[in-house]
Design goal:
mainly alpha, 81% helix, membrane, transmembrane helix
Length: 134
């Protein structure tokens, strides 16, 4: 990465980290048990911040010599979709997320891991494309 864009990516990294912390430590505990719609919106904002955080990490740690493949993004998409389907299946069976939170922990970790892989892969690919264009 050229030195002229590195500060912008570092600012993106810091702001995504701050947003993820704010959403997961302040908004979700505030809304989660009583307001499911607000908690869902906060969760989507948290997912976006984690994806941006991993995108910035992928941009900063990438030193590509050639265009990287998107295999990790494919794995991330598969992990995300499978985890969402498992969480929805648990909900359809009738397991309430408030009563059985440990059951929902594995799909939640899969969702976050899938989003992290997607963001990181896109960050690596973006940095490689920028190096090729230069």
């Amino acid at each position: 990465m050229s030195d002229d864009r590195r500060p912008f990516v570092v600012v993106l990294l810091g702001s995504a980290l701050a947003m993820a912390g704010l959403v997961h430590l302040w908004l979700l505990p505030r809304y989660l048990p009583n307001e499911p719609v607000s908690a869902g919106l906060a969760l989507i904002a948290g997912w976006a911040s984690v994806t941006l955080l991993c995108y910035a990490i992928g941009r900063l740690q990438s030193a590509p010599r050639e265009l990287p493949n998107m295999r990790f993004a494919d794995i991330g998409i598969a992990l995300l979709l499978v985890s969402l389907v498992i969480a929805l299946a648990l909900d359809a069976v009738g397991l309430a997320s408030e009563a059985t939170a440990p059951v929902y922990a594995l799909p939640a970790l899969g969702i976050y891991a899938g989003l992290a892989l997607i963001g990181w892969s896109i960050g690596r690919r973006t940095e490689a494309i920028n190096e090729i264009v230069r």
